[in-house]
Write a structure and sequence with these properties.
The protein is an alpha+beta fold and 206 residues long. The chain contains eight helices and four strands. The longest helix has 31 residues, at 90-120.
């Protein structure tokens, strides 16, 4: 059994989807960020960075429970545990890792910056910069998806699971949404049709 500590943001949704896709047994727990539950000493024992999502695998290899934080690391761990959504071929696996890095280190922070400077600490010039950079990143995704069904060729992987919630949730911050990116839109619609994705995206949203 896996305990999942999460919120229904793009980062949380990545792990929701992965757990639903793999079929691994899990118990979801909603973390109240407004009450500061992620800063509680008990939570910081699981993740010293005090961020969600976090999983605790009670059936991990080795002895004792095993906590995993950071979305890319969680996706990698669950892929290894389940034997799903990560190619065995070393080149394809490297491509997956490159996309995980691109999404987590580049695309995700751009939307966080855009939200911060448009809503939390209003700064129109900074907000405009982050939105423009996010548009460039989606242009890259669109160009790549023009020639393939998924981010790593024709196989659905944790790269897609990582990127989809960013497109579906954070992409709404873009002035025209996904309209200017037809290949991203086609890719997102195909992923959205998956039953496991629908269950994962719905977690804690009702």
């Amino acid at each position: 059994m896996i305990d999942l500590y999460t919120v229904p943001t793009a980062n949380g949704q990545k792990i929701h989807i992965m757990l639903e896709e793999t079929g691994l047994a899990y118990r979801p727990h909603l973390v109240d960020l407004y009450k500061g539950e992620h800063r509680a000493p008990e939570f910081r024992k699981l993740n010293p960075f005090a961020r969600v999502p976090v999983i605790v695998d009670h059936d991990a290899p080795g002895e004792g429970d095993f906590a995993v934080c950071e979305t890319g690391a969680i996706l990698r761990y669950l892929a290894a545990k389940s034997g799903q959504f990560l190619p065995a071929d070393i080149r394809l696996a490297s491509e997956v890792d490159q996309w995980l890095s691109f999404i987590s280190a580049n695309v995700g922070p751009l939307f966080r910056g855009g939200f911060m400077f448009s809503t939390m600490v209003p700064n129109p010039a900074a907000a405009e910069y982050f939105v423009a950079e996010a548009q460039k990143a989606f242009g890259v995704l669109n160009d790549v998806l023009a020639t393939r069904s998924f981010l790593v060729g024709e196989t659905y992987t944790i790269a897609d699971i990582s990127a989809y919630p960013v497109a579906a949730t954070s992409g709404k911050q873009l002035p025209q949404g996904l309209t200017p990116y037809p290949h991203v839109r086609r890719w997102a619609e195909a992923i959205a049709a998956r039953a496991a994705v629908q269950r994962g995206m719905a977690l804690f949203t009702k």
